[in-house]
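Module 6 notes. Inverse folding takes a fixed backbone as the condition and produces residue identities as the prediction. Think of it as a translation problem where the source language is geometry and the target language is the twenty amino acids. Below is one complete input and output pair. Work through it position by position during the lab.
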């Protein structure tokens, strides 16, 4: 295995010139466009690259392996932590009826997982790292995960990383809004649920 040259984007982004940031964003967009062009499996299963369970903080607070899920409807059940859809805002209820194509998803995209190197022609992306969470997920997933990561890292707000995410990954504003709205409900278990059924429960197929 070769070591990817360069430094972590998280360490240098804030001090880059605007032209360099534009160039880095364009290069990353090209990488994600290539990922999206990979044909998905015929199965609607939401799963890892090998067809097995996936690991994701959106699905399990302690990063346990989850799934695979039969389809997006089954995944939505886990995102709601098995709460009935009627427990949610009408916007959330409407979103549960939407279907998104499955795409090859990094599932942990953030500046800490991008390697860059300064060259005479400017900064270049040398690689995207940490693919252990990758798999086949709905097309909105990488965007929402990237925005959520930004919200959890206060320093990012100082240099407007969130403002660059839509230039790299196709934005999905409704799922982003749903994530925030649904979180107000799923942080607590259902009143009629067993003791172990709550935020950390893994939903099995």
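Target side of the pair, the amino acids:
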């Amino acid at each position: 295995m070769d070591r990817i040259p360069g430094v972590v984007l998280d360490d240098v982004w804030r001090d880059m010139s605007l032209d360099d940031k534009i160039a880095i964003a364009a290069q990353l967009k090209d990488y994600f466009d290539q990922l999206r062009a990979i044909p998905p499996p015929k199965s609607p299963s939401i799963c890892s690259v090998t067809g097995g369970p996936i690991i994701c903080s959106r699905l399990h607070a302690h990063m346990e392996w989850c799934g695979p899920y039969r389809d997006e409807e089954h995944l939505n059940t886990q995102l709601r932590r098995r709460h009935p859809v009627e427990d949610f805002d009408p916007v959330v209820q409407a979103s549960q009826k939407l279907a998104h194509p499955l795409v090859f998803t990094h599932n942990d995209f953030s500046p800490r997982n991008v390697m860059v190197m300064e060259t005479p022609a400017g900064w270049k992306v040398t690689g995207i790292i940490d693919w252990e969470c990758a798999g086949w997920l709905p097309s909105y997933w990488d965007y929402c995960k990237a925005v959520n990561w930004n919200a959890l890292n206060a320093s990012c707000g100082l240099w407007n990383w969130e403002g660059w995410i839509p230039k790299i990954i196709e934005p999905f504003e409704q799922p982003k809004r749903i994530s925030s709205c649904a979180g107000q409900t799923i942080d607590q278990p259902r009143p009629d649920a067993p003791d172990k059924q709550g935020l950390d429960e893994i939903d099995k197929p």
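Reference fact for the lab report: Confidence is low (pLDDT under 50) at residues 181-205.
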